[in-house]
Amino acid sequence: AGSEGEMELPFTEDVQLTEMMRLRVQSLQQRGQRRQEGERLLLPHEAVYRLDFAEQELTFLHWNVTLGGPGRLSVTGISQLWTPDLTNLMTRQLLEPTGQFWRTAGEALDAPIKCLEADIQEFGERIAELAKVRKVMYFLFAFKEGAEKDSIRCSLMFKKNTEPGP
C-alpha cells in the first residue's frame, strides 16, 4: 500500500464500448463501405479501457504495469468524451505520446518491464491534467507481439492534492 494520500487507479476494460466499436467494423465490412474520413477503426488486437476519477485533483506518480509473459502493450489516450450515441472514434482525438510497455521472450518474469520512460511520464502528467476536467477518460489498449490480454494489469498511481487544513 502507498503512503497517505496516494491513490491507485486501475484501467478497466469498457466491454460495451469495445463491442460497439467491433460491430462498427463488422457492419462496414459486411456492407462493403469505407470508414469515414479521419475515422479510427478498432483493430482485432485492440480494446477500449477506461479510467474513472473518483478524485479530480491529482498529481501523477507512476505507472504500474504487469505483463505475464513476452509481448507489448501500447496505451493511447483518447480525448473524446463518449456520449450515449457512441460517436465514431476519430484519429484526431488520439493523444500523444502513447505509453509503450514490453517484455522480450526469454526474459525473467521478475525483470522490470521495458518502457519509454519520458513518454510514460509525460502521458501520466497529461492524464492528471485531464482528470481535473473530467470524471472518466478512455484509452485504446493494443496487445501486440504475443501479449495476452488476461495476463496484463495496468494502473496509475497518483497523489491526491489535498488543500492544507486551517
TrEMBL record:
InterPro entries (alphabetical): Olfactory_marker, Olfactory_marker_sf
Domain of life the protein comes from: Eukaryota
Family annotation (Gene3D superfamilies): Olfactory marker
GO biological process: sensory perception of smell; signal transduction
A Pfam family this chain is assigned to: Olfactory_mark
Full protein name: Uncharacterized protein
Taxonomic lineage of the native organism: Eukaryota, Metazoa, Chordata, Craniata, Vertebrata
